[in-house]
Design brief:
Number of helices: 7
CATH superfamily of the largest domain: Immunoglobulins
Strand content: 35-45%
CATH class of the largest domain: Mainly Beta
Largest sheet: 6 strands, antiparallel
Number of domains: 3
Radius of gyration: 30 Å
Distance between the termini: 58 Å
Helix content: 10-25%
């Protein structure tokens, strides 16, 4: 009797602690009160974010023996790897309150009670905020869920400060298999243990092409990105994302993982749609970026297979190109006469080859990793050298880059955000006529948002 009274008290505590707030943020974590071995039930998490906007991530940490599958994601990308169920939003829903769901399933018999903990991360004033959600203790055999004090959350390591068993390779492989489906038909095999990335292009019709990309020998732990650029008269449409966050801009498509699936191969695909019929396969340039042992790396994506969809091949067969023929006329041909050898042709004088002047180029060293600069001006044209000294009294060095249809002028290159922030403040004080200098961020020389740079480098924002 006392046991049931205690269980009732714990269940009431669950309802009381189901709402957990920090500042204006409120999270309601409704875990089912019962879960038997082999049973699968829905978990609902309500996030009352008020006016928060932008990037956000919800992570739920499950013990071995429990798995999660996607339910209602509200526009987030969902992955389950290494016992982590993860929802990632590049931009949170516009509603002040929204719900997400996932399905909790017990695949092994669990005798002891297990804990389910989690965290919600978002960006506030260019600073990452990590907020622990209510912790739950689940007794699978008795089907009882109890509420506990939220676990302390370490924002530096991005993991809950608790000890848990390491996910076995078989469980990790099973979890990652759910986020990969179709395989590239003719992908080559990487001969060594290096991470590889290959592409296969399939012509669907005269204007559309399917592109399949496979990451092979995947040993990446954490962040990874694939960027593909297609011809200017074509656009892209996502097919398969493998749990990544996908963004499309004009004639490019980008797949970003904050935690790439733990699988030896990861497959993604997209479709290219061109405005006009193509006589040849489109030219695609692509690269994959990732971090290995705290060192940023980048590899090119090579095309290893080109094929044609059977339906398109049967309806519009490709005719082989014929060799050009000489048109014959009715004029009778003279009998062939053996020409006499020309002594001059047999011993031609050597032609004098003029030496070619070598082009003089100046190639700057490539930027590696996360860097920060200060943008001092943006315009639609390149200004002359005297513009900055005469107009703004600025005679320092600057770089010119084309970005989003603008000519942008930046100065400096810093590995730490704080150093770029200090340089921006100094420029602002010394040159008051400049229209608001600000800090910009880059990953391996590619311009990204400062918030994304914080997430990759784990640096902090300084006011």
């Amino acid at each position: 009797m006392i046991k049931y009274a205690l269980l009732s008290f714990q269940f009431i505590g669950l309802l009381i602690l189901g709402l957990f707030t920090e500042n204006d943020l409120t999270i309601d974590n409704q875990t089912p009160p019962a879960l038997a071995p082999g049973e699968k039930k829905e978990v609902t998490i309500t996030i009352d974010k008020k006016d928060l906007q932008g990037f956000a991530k919800l992570e739920v940490f499950l013990p071995p023996g429990l798995i999660a599958t996607a339910g209602k994601t509200e526009g987030a990308s969902f992955t389950f790897n290494e016992q982590k169920a993860r929802f990632v939003w590049m931009s949170m829903p516009t509603e002040s309150s929204f719900k997400v769901t996932y399905y909790l399933e017990c695949i092994n018999s669990i005798v002891a009670a297990v804990e389910i903990k989690g965290a919600f991360s978002y960006i506030l004033e260019n600073k990452r905020v990590d907020f622990s959600i209510p912790l739950r203790t689940v007794d699978v055999n008795s089907g009882t869920v109890t509420a506990s004090t939220p676990a302390a959350y370490n924002s530096t390591t991005n993991t809950a400060q608790t000890t848990s068993e390491t996910t076995s390779p078989s469980n990790a492989e099973t979890a990652s298999a759910a986020s990969t489906s179709n395989l590239i038909a003719s992908a080559s095999v990487v001969s060594d243990d290096a991470v590889g990335c290959v592409r296969t292009i399939t012509q669907l019709n005269s204007t559309d092409f399917r592109v399949d990309i496979r990451v092979m020998n995947n040993t990446i732990n954490g962040f990874a990105k694939i960027l593909e650029t297609v011809p200017a008269n074509c656009k892209t449409e996502k097919n398969q994302d493998a749990g990544s966050v996908v963004t499309q801009d004009k004639n490019s498509i980008k797949f970003v993982w904050f935690e790439i699936p733990k699988s030896s191969t990861v497959d993604i695909s997209y479709t290219i749609k061109c405005l006009q019929a193509q006589s040849e396969l489109p030219v695609i340039t692509g690269k994959m970026s990732y971090v290995e042992n705290s060192t940023p790396k980048e590899i090119a994506i090579n095309t290893v297979g080109q094929m044609m969809d059977p339906v398109f091949a049967d309806s519009t067969p490709v005719q082989p190109k014929e060799d050009p023929k000489v048109v014959e006329t009715a004029t009778p041909k003279p009998d062939p006469v053996t020409p006499k050898p020309d002594p001059i042709a047999q011993n031609p004088k050597p032609k004098k080859v003029e030496p070619k002047e070598e082009a003089i180029t100046s190639v700057p060293s490539p930027e590696i990793g996360i860097t920060f600069k200060v943008q001092i001006l943006a315009a639609h044209r390149v200004v002359n050298k005297m513009y900055f000294p005469q107009k703004h009294g600025y005679d320092g060095k600057y770089n010119i880059e084309n970005h989003e249809g603008w000519v942008k002028y930046t100065t400096g290159k810093y590995n730490e955000y704080k150093l770029a922030r200090d340089a921006r403040e100094q420029i602002t004080r010394d040159h008051t006529t400049l229209p608001g200098p600000f800090v910009t961020a880059y990953n391996d020389g590619e311009r990204i948002t400062v918030q994304e740079a914080f997430l990759i480098s784990k640096q902090q924002w300084f006011k």
